[in-house]
Amino acid sequence: MSDPKSVITLLHGAGGAYMHNLIKEYFLQLYDGFGEVGLNVLDDAAVINGIVLTTDSYTVRPIFFKGGDIGKLSVSGTVNDISMMGGDPIALSLAVVIEEGFPKSDLAKIVESIKRTAEDAGVHIVTGDTKVMERGSLDKIVINTSGIGVASDALEYNFKVLSRTRSVKYKWLVPMNIKDGDKIIVSGTIGDHAIAILSSREGIEFESNVVSDVAPLNKMIKAVLEVGGVADAKDPTRGGLADLLNDWADKSGLGIYIRESEIPVKEEVSSAVEFLGLDLLELGNEGKAVLAVSPEMARDVLDALHKTPWGKDATIIGDVRKDMEGVILETVVGGKRLVTRPTGDPVPRIC
Fold first, then answer.
1. How far is the C-alpha of 298 from the C-alpha of 1, rounded, in Å?
2. Domain assignment of residue 249, given as a range
3. Surface-to-core class of residue 344, CB atoms within 10 Å of its CB (0-12 exposed, 13-18 middle, 19+ buried)
4. Is 114 in contact with 69 (CB distance < 8 Å)?
5. Which NCBIfam families does UniProt cross-reference here (predicted)?
6. pLDDT digits over 105-139, tens only?
7. φ, ψ of residue 286 in degrees (nearest 5)
8. Residue 345 in this model has a pLDDT that exceeds 80
9. Please, where are the H alpha helices in the chain?
10. What pLDDT shows up at residue 15?
11. ∠ CA 100-105-110 to the nearest 5 degrees?
12. Residue 58 and residue 80: Cα distance in Å, rounded?
């Protein structure tokens, strides 16, 4: 087994503690002070002169899975990274690295999926790049999408509402806006994507057909911004809820208290997690958002989520507290446990 102290391992790309430490040790030194929201924030997007910019590479295995494929995933993931900053996504680039011998019929399916998902999100594919590598030097196909977006009237209104109850330094959705008392909302059931990937990859059939939740969420996020009071938003992808909430706690300097009984999860996903011995909070998702919302607006935001197709199962799962540190989970039996940042994703290559 490779030593993660001396070489790069799969743990370093899994969204947990190893990946965060790698980024801080090597890549954070590239920060030179540029950007309204710059590299130092270590978020999924940056803001430069009012433009939201993000980039992401997709290596999911298998490339076709229950509920989606690498094409739908690549567009949705990049659209969501822009949206979670509060940007209105406009255009994407598309870079594709293909293994020699890859079937053209599969490429046609992926391109059609990219086109359909971009149309659903209302974004445009405007430029790209194509490379082919020797047979055996790549696992089928890798896709990189970069995207740009701009602030919308909905974002401006959101912070107008939020500013009634607090001083706001960043007029973008970032963890530094989170304050004591904010409610934590999850837009829907968690763990769907990771379990769908496992099912497709390993051929495990659960009692019901679990499908990925992968979807572009920009229209849902715009709907809640039009209500106002959202301090931050983020999608719980690699590392799941556990990584996301620990990131918020670290960057806000506040504690987060969540209740296991309030976390929405499909019964078949819960059964699969128990059967496989996984931690639900560490599983990646590709069509869910977590919101930190001012307590005055939390119920209105929840109502707005319920009116969208992507947020009908949204639930308030906890709140932000200044009198504690880290992330604490109240279990279904009334106990409490510390939720730490995962070492890595228990299901690698889910995105």
1. 47
2. 10-339
3. buried
4. no
5. hypE (TIGR02124)
6. 999 999 999 999 999 999 999 999 999 999 999 99
7. -130, 10
8. no
9. 17-22, 70-83, 104-121, 153-162, 192-202, 218-225, 240-252, 267-276, 298-306
10. 73
11. 90
12. 14
Over residues 216-230, the mean pLDDT reads 98
∠ CA(327), CA(333), CA(337), 5° rounding?
25
On whether residue 258 sits in a domain, the answer given is yes
Rounded to two decimals, what is the model's pTM?
A: 0.95
CATH of residue 258's domain is 3.90.650.10
Using alpha carbons, select from 221, 240, 235 the residue that is nearest to residue 287. 235
Task: Please determine, for residue 2, whether its predicted confidence score (pLDDT) is greater than 70.
Answer: no
Report whether 221 contacts 172 (CB < 8 A): no
Residue 194 CB-density burial (10 A; 0-12 exposed, 13-18 middle, 19+ buried): buried
183 by Cβ neighbours in 10 Å (0-12 / 13-18 / 19+) ranks as buried
Largest Cα–Cα distance of the chain, in whole Å?
59
The neighbour count for residue 227, using CB atoms within 10 Å, is: 20
Q: What is the pLDDT of residue 11?
A: 79
pLDDT exceeds cutoff 70 at 205? no
Average pLDDT, integer, range 326-334: 96
The first and second tokens of residue 350, run together, are 């889910």
Q: Token pair 């947020």 is at which residue?
A: 311
Strands 327-330, 141-151: pairing is: unpaired
**Residue 12 — pLDDT band, cuts 50, 70, 90?**
confident
Contacts of 250 (CB under 8 A, 6+ apart): none
Place of tokens 């730490």: 340
Provide, for the chain, the percentages of residues in helix, strand and coil under a 3-state DSSP scheme, each rounded to the nearest 5.
35, 25, 40
Q: Is residue 347 part of a domain?
A: no
| Residues 136 and 103 sit within 8 Å (Cβ to Cβ) | no
Give residue 1's pLDDT band: very low, low, confident or very high (50, 70, 90): low
Residues in CB range of 21: below 8 A, 6 or more apart: none
Strand partners, 151: 87
pLDDT at 244: 97
Split into its structural domains, the chain has a count of 1
What would the two tokens of residue 44 be?
Answer: 């999924």
Q: Quote the percentage of the chain above a pLDDT of 90.
A: 84
Residues 31 and 55: their CA atoms lie apart, in Å, by: 16
